[in-house]
Amino acid sequence: MGFLVDSKQEGFGASWGGLKSLVRRKQVDSAHSKRLNHHQLAKELTVPHLIAIGVGSTIGAGVYILVGTVAREHSGPALTISFLIAGIAAALSAFCYAELASRCPSAGSAYHYSYICVGEGIAWLIGWALILEYTIGGAAVARGISPNLALLFGGENSLPFFLARQHIPGLDIVVDPCASVLVFVVTGLLCVGIKESTLVQAIVTTANVCAMIFVIVAGGYLGFKTGWTGYELPTGYFPFGVDGMLAGSATVFFAYIGFDSVASTAEEVKNPQRDLPLGIATALSICCGLYMLVSVVIVGLVPYYAMDPDTPISSAFASHGMQWAAYIITIGAVTALCSTLMGSILPQPRILMAMARDGLLPSLFSDVNESTQVPVKSTLATGIVAATLAFVMDVSQLAGMVSVGTLLAFTMVAISVLILRYVPPDEVPLPSSLQESIDSVTLKYSKYTQVISGEKPEMSSSRDSSQPLLGNKNVTIDCPVVEKQEAQVSCIPSEENRRKIAGWTIMLTCIGAFILTFAASNLWLPSLLRFTLCGVGGILLLSGLVVLTCIDQDDARHNFGHTGGFICPFVPLLPIACILINVYLLINLGSLVDAVYVPTVCADEIYRSGEVLA
Questions:
Q1: Which of 419, 385, 378, 344 is nearest to 123 (CA)?
Q2: How far apart are CA 605 and CA 614, in angstroms?
Q3: Average pLDDT for the chain
Q4: Cβ-contact 295, 131 below 8 angstroms
Q5: Are 63 and 545 spatial neighbours (Cβ–Cβ below 8 Å)?
Q6: What's the pLDDT at 570?
Q7: Which residues of the chain have pLDDT under 70?
Q8: Residue 546: strand, helix, or coil
Q9: Helix count (H) and strand count (E) of the chain?
Q10: Is the N-terminal amide bond of 569 cis, ω within 30° of 0?
Q11: Fewer Cβ within 10 Å of end Cβ, the chain: N or C?
C-alpha cells in the first residue's frame, strides 16, 4: 500500500473525469505504509541470497539446448559473441532495475515502479502481465522436469505410476502429476520463509553451476586435446554474417530473463541501497560468463553444422567417447529447471501483495504471516493455480507468451527511469524521522477529535487520492513539510515548460521507437511506406535523445525515494537504447520465444537421444 499523489500541477484537471484515476501516481514512501498496516516482510536477504535468486531464476535448462539451435541456424562459431551482445542488452535493463530497486525498495518490482512513475492504469496492466508471466512460466517449467527425471531413472516409464504422465482418453489430455507435486513442494517451501527457501534455491543452483563447470572444464580438455576442430572451418568465424550473429543475439537474449526476480524481493533485503544493485549485477555477470564459456567449448568441439539441435552438449561429448557425460548434463538440466521453478513462483505472491496493498486486488492477498513473515495466502493462491495448470494443461504453446510480460516490464522500467529523472512526481516523500513525528502528532490529534465528536477512529485509505497526505484537511500541525515551494516555481517560469517539454519528448521517443522497429521488422510492407516509417521513427527517436540530452534533469530526482543508492549512468541514452531493444524483441516475439522453453517442447527428443547415448 502506498500514498497516491494527485497530479493536478502536471495538467490533469477535473475534466479527465473517470480517466483521472488511470494517471494518478503513488507516493514512494513504502516504509511509512508498512508501519501503518503492519504488512512487513522479513528483512533477511543479503548479497549472496540475491545472487542465488538471480542466477537460479536466469539459468534454465534452455542453455543445454540453445547452443545447438542458435549455432546451427544463426551464429555459427560466433555464438559466444551473440551471448555477449545479448548480455550487454540485458545489462541495460539491469541498470534501470538497479536504480529503481534501490530508490523504491518495496515489493512489486516493475508494477510498483510503474505506479510511482507512470500511473495506476499502466501499473495495473504491468501487474497482470507479470502475473501471467510467472504463472504460465512456472507451469511450463514444471512440466519440463518429469521427462528429464525419467531419463535419470532409466527411461520414459521409469517414474512411479502416481508420478508418471497419464493420458486421459475421454478428455484427450495428458496429465502430469509429477509437475503438480513439484509445484506444491516449492509452494510449501516458499511458505516456510524467504531465508530458508533461498538457501534451498542456492543449493540447487550450485548443483546446476557445477554441471556447467564440468562442461567447461571437461570440454576444454577435449578441445585442447583434439585441436578445436569446430573453429577450423573454411566458412570462417561468421558463416551467416553479422546479421546472423545479431539474430542469434536476439534469440539468446531470452536466456537472460530472470534477473528481475531479484527486484521483487527488494522489501526483504537488509540493505537494499547497496545489496540490490550488487546482487543484480553479479547474478547477470555470472550468467553471461557461464553462457559464453559453455558456448566457446561446445562450438569448438563440434562443427556448428554437425551439432544435434536437441542435445548439442551430450552429443558433443559422445562424439569424443564420453557418453556417460549425458547423465551429468541431465542432472544439470533437472536442477536448472527446479531452480527456475522456484524463481518463477517466488515473485508472484509479492506482486499480488503489492497490488492488494494498493486496493487493486482483495485485501486478503496483502496479509503477511506473523511467524514466517511471508505472504502465505498469496503464495498458496499462486501455487494452486500453477499446479493446476501444470497438471491438466500442456502450456508449451502458451509458454512463449510469458516473454510478453517480461519485455513489457523491461520497457516500462526504462521509461520509469526517464520519468524519474525529468518529470518526477511533484510531492516528494518526507524523511523518515520527520514523518514519524508528524504521524504521531496527527494520530494523537485525530483520536482526540474523534473521541470528542463520538466518532470511531478509522484509518484513511490510500485509495482516496483527493485526501491530504496527513489526513483531515482542517488539522493544523506546526511541523515543517518537505514540498516544492509555489513561490519558487513562480520565480522560475521555465521550470513548468521544461517539465512539459520533457514529458512530451519522452512520449514521442517511445512512439518513435515503436514506429522504427515495426517498420524495420515487417518486410511485407511496401518499400516506400516502410522506408518512410523508418525515417519518421528514426527522426522522433534521435530528436528525443537530443532534446533530453540538452535539457536539464529535474532537481527533485535527488530527493526521490531512498537516496544513496545506485544511479543509472548515461541517461537518457541508456534507457532509450533499452526501450528500443525491448520494443524490437516484443514485435519479433513470435520467432524468438522458443528459446526460453525449448526443454518443454523437445522433452521427448531429449529422452530418445539420451537413450541412444546411454
A1: 419
A2: 14
A3: 81
A4: no
A5: no
A6: 94
A7: 1-21, 28-39, 155-156, 395-401, 426-493, 590-614
A8: helix
A9: 26, 4
A10: no
A11: C
Round to whole Å and give the CA distance between 245 and 234.
Answer: 17
DSSP letters along 78-121, please? GHHHHHHHHHHHHHHHHHHHHHHHHHS-STTTHHHHHHHHT-HH
| Side chain identity, residue 169 | P
Are 87 and 288 spatial neighbours (Cβ–Cβ below 8 Å)?
yes
Phi-psi region of 318 (alpha: psi -120 to 50; beta: other; left: phi over 0): alpha
| Model confidence pTM above 0.90 | no
The C-alpha cell at 333 is: 538440466
Q: What angle do CA 290, 62, 608 make, to 5 degrees?
A: 125
pLDDT digits (tens, 9 = 90+) for 99-151: 999 988 888 899 999 999 998 999 999 999 999 889 888 888 898 888 888 87
Rounded alpha-carbon distances, angstroms, from residue 301 to 83, 213, 232, 343, 572: 18, 16, 11, 32, 43
Read off the pLDDT of residues 501-557 as tens digits, 9 standing for 90 and up: 999 999 999 999 999 999 998 888 899 999 999 999 999 999 999 999 999 888 777
Cα angle 209-213-216, degrees, rounded to a multiple of 5: 140
* Contact present, 373 and 193 (Cβ < 8 Å): yes
| Three-point CA angle 191, 193, 196, nearest 5° | 120
**Cβ atoms within 10 A of the Cβ of 226, count?**
13
